[in-house]
């Protein structure tokens, strides 16, 4: 039966990272628990919601953990409840001891708390994965690719494949990530230093957001493994599994064209503020849009929501070329697109009032492109 | 028709303070608006939810306001919407101009936003109050009295009078504030430096909490005025009106007695942490309680929730005298009582397992007393 002692803060941090995979309202009740497996030289914490699973390993060799294992074993504990209890303990260390019938006694300072656990055999078996030939990538880079693309994925389950981010590696080094909800699209390209096996997968955007929260910036690199149905992100102590989406991702390359009629360069922050003002007014009308008027000496934005009011604003521009154009669109799409840009300037290219327009960062137009579909107005 | 210009941040701060009285879901639709009245030398912002009303005055003489009034007038604007718009404006100043049909044009930088307003005659008339012989009190002191008592008022409308704080001034200087929800009670006494007319009122605890949020710590003193049905807190720029509760407040003095059998002095923070742990477990059972066991050489806390587990904890004590005693109570009441105490130590006096026990701060036992009713267990 389990017996160990550990530093409370360190344990709490590992529990909270693992909890990100655990939903308290799961259709499978046992998935609201956290699995605690104690081996001779480490503890593994496991959480899962059926889509994502996280395994967090705490080795006795990690000095910050202050981990002393007296006796191994395994138990399931209600995740939220257990974490709240650990967080409330008075001392810097805690003793964790299993007594009869999966009961756990936590001792810390003069406080002794007894909790009911469950038999570890009740926990579902998570899929195993072959871990060969990983793609090794900087955590920071992978997280920035996720920030640049995942927001553009669909939130609606009507076309499940669009709720994912399409990630493709070809020729062992040409990487592409793309997401679209059919109204807008965001695509990031990259040439990798470390070559790996080619892959072509669609990853739920929700899983990618959880990955970004779990893999903190102190984790320098991450190993990525693929199988037909799932994917594993692994660092020294954390294994993060996610299921993949099944089905064919639409061909997004055909949406991109090099031709354009009008090009305007904006300051990213100034354009975003102007669109946020426009959105406050357009938002009062269902499917409210902002109208951009580009003439040869000015660019202006206009919103008219008869119930609440209107906005007229002249926009500061950095550069401009091509034909005059008037185009209407949902300002939310442009706001989200600009949020995803780290560049100080943004280049926007228009073809016609009824064709999608493209956004590229002023400093890296080759590798990051976004596309927004306009709204036809009369 | 109105025309003025003002510093955006200053205006926003005044709007947000006024908004605290405004509920966007009011049964009287016009109360979701903010009233803006522009006179020759100041602007008054008014918000009300029918219970609380706030008037905020911005004078041209305040240099931080940067207020320049060209033409007076009055208009109503949807409060939330208007404040969001002001907050989004690009420049440090804004111009506010009324055009035809209560329409307002806001200009800031190159942005021009037109909003629909309403006729000021639609706004209800707020009650007037005689402003003579105020009670003048330090804002900080009044806010600390509110923190010490308002939490103990009832949240249930079954006995409306108990949702208020009973405030009484007798002999022109003896002040008492008391609140009870019939399970616990908190009473603060004070001898005032500035004498005033006697009063005996019951103020909704919700109004007092809003008062504490609106009157920031930079406002040194506040004038308090009473009428039969309402009350006014006034500083240089802010007038805060609240309705009073009608009815007789129960006689709480009879609950207090000087006799006791057992007295224990605790460190406030340590006792609170222990009760928070106890609450995590007791909370899993409906009406869960914590049992305190006081013997001649130790004090311990025990919770047993058969579904989830139990807590046993020896409590650190500073001092102890009197008979042995075992008493059960809802730990939430003790946690909230301890939160209201600024003193490092707390003295708790017990009479018997079925009689209320009292809490007093270690450093000011005379003037601040709290009372908690135990739960009978078998």
The CATH topology annotation of the largest domain in chain A reads as: DNA Polymerase III, Chain A, domain 2
- Shape by Cα distribution of chain A: elongated
Helix content of chain A: 10-25%
Q: Report the total helices of chain A.
A: 6
Output the CATH class name of the largest domain in chain A: Alpha Beta
What is the assembly state of the chains in this entry?
A: homodimer
* Order of adjacent strands in the largest pleated sheet of chain A: 14-11-12-13-26-25-24-18-22
Beta-strand portion of chain A reads 35-45%
Q: Name the structural class of chain A.
A: alpha+beta
Determine the CATH superfamily of the largest domain in chain A: DNA Polymerase III, subunit A, domain 2
Q: What is the name of the CATH architecture of the largest domain in chain A?
A: Roll
- The radius of gyration computed from the alpha-carbon positions of chain A, rounded to a whole number of angstroms, is 25 Å
Number of strands of chain A: 26
Number of domains of chain A: 3
The average pLDDT score of chain A comes to 93
Q: Uncertain runs of chain A with pLDDT below 50, 5 residues or more?
A: none
Q: Biggest interface and its residues per chain?
A: A-B, 33 and 33 residues
* Intertermini distance of chain A: 74 Å
The profile of the biggest β sheet of chain A is:
9 strands, antiparallel
